[in-house]
Design brief:
There is one protein chain. The chain has 336 residues and is α/β, with parallel strands linked by helices. The chain has two domains: 1-56, Immunoglobulins (Immunoglobulin-like, Sandwich), CATH 2.60.40.10; 87-292 and 305-310, Glycosidases (TIM Barrel, Alpha-Beta Barrel), CATH 3.20.20.80. The chain has eight helices and 17 strands. Strands 8-9-12-15-16-17 form a six-stranded parallel β-sheet. Strands 3-2-6-7 form a four-stranded antiparallel β-sheet, with no helix packed on it. It starts with a strand and ends in a 27-residue tail after the last helix.
């Protein structure tokens, strides 16, 4: 028997469609629905909410073989998928990071084709490969920043099995792997999360509605994000994450989501016995992001240059001031 679960406090009725057959689910007081179903290990499934017959993908889907609008598929890695048992990880301090977009790195645009060029990266002196977002987004081509199913791996790249092969090969070549994770917004196509529960808040950021980190139901949303982040490092053996635009995470709680994630990441690193790193991209030049911490990916030089050369560009927060050096490693870059 396979247990299907979904957090869906919004609808009054939830059923799970498994390979075309509907099964009733039982709701608990915390808004979670559960059902046990006898099915194939690679069954296609989705959820039907209230009276709408549309089968929606699982918010925690591991695989979307037909795209973000279709059924999810049960998935587990093959027992012999990993060969990196000897990988002890590496510290990110002072290393060379190569930002890699899977879709344009090779003509084929897949994880497997990228493996064939890892020797080239080693020859360049690269220490870490930073994969631009690999979560599932609508369509075939894109930068990945409009992801809607954060737990699933973009299928045209090679899906979860392909990502395992790439990270495993990177470790064989002595390369660490960072994954660019976008938790500040959801893409416009294939975002069904609001149908299930209060994943979004009333506030807005430059890309749309903000993620609910402080309002009613936020505890489950925060857990959804943190588990997704830890999953990349635990289940996919990533050595860390680059967190996109953390200044757009509107969190008014006593313990900020980033602080919570940082503590959980440290705990996971101790459990796994290898270093794990978090890099936060921010426009705020806020020292709290790196005191204490590992690194901050600042867009200040990029945004400052844009403002200087394009006066009509609206200023980003703190970018209308001189850029503050980080940990003494960057020289001051005054505006002229």
């Amino acid at each position: 028997m396979t247990e299907f679960t979904v957090w869906a406090p919004t609808p009054e009725l939830v059923r799970v469609d498994v390979d075309g057959t509907l099964h009733d689910m039982v709701r608990s007081e915390d808004g979670w629905w559960r059902a046990e179903v006898a099915c194939r290990s690679d069954a296609r499934y989705g959820f039907v909410l209230d009276d709408d017959p549309t089968v929606l993908p699982d918010p925690r889907s591991a695989r979307q073989p037909d795209g973000v609008h279709e059924r999810s598929q049960l998935w587990q890695p093959a027992p012999d998928a990993w060969t990196d048992d000897g990988w002890a990880g590496r510290s990110i301090s002072g290393t060379v990071i190569y930002e890699l977009h899977v879709g344009t790195f090779t003509p084929e645009g897949t994880f497997d084709s990228a493996i064939e060029k890892l020797d080239h990266l080693v020859d360049l002196g690269v220490d870490f490969v930073e994969l631009m977002p690999v979560n599932a987004f609508n369509g075939t081509h894109g930068w990945g920043y409009d992801g809607v199913l954060w737990y699933a791996v973009h299928e045209p790249y090679g899906g979860p099995d392909g990502l395992i092969r790439l990270i495993d090969a990177c470790h064989t070549h002595g390369l660490g792997v960072l994954i660019d994770a976008v938790f500040n917004h959801l893409g416009p196509s294939g975002n069904y999360l609001p149908r299930f529960g209060p994943y979004l808040s009333s506030g807005h950021n430059p890309w749309g509605s903000s993620i609910n980190l402080s309002d009613a139901g936020a505890d489950e949303v925060r857990a959804y994000i943190i588990e997704c982040a830890l999953r990349w490092m635990r289940d996919f053996h990533a050595d860390g994450l680059r967190l996109d635009a953390v200044h757009a995470l509107a969190d008014n709680t006593a313990i900020h989501l980033l602080e919570e994630l940082s503590a959980d990441t440290d705990a996971l690193a101790g459990e796994l016995g290898r270093p794990l790193s978090l890099i936060a991209e921010s426009d705020l030049n806020d020292p709290r992001l790196i005191t204490p911490g590992t690194a901050v990916d600042t867009d200040s030089p990029h945004n400052g240059t844009t403002m200087s050369t394009t006066p009509s560009t609206p200023p980003c927060p703190a970018n209308d001031k001189a850029i503050t050096p980080i940990s003494g490693r960057w020289p001051p870059w005054p505006r002229r």
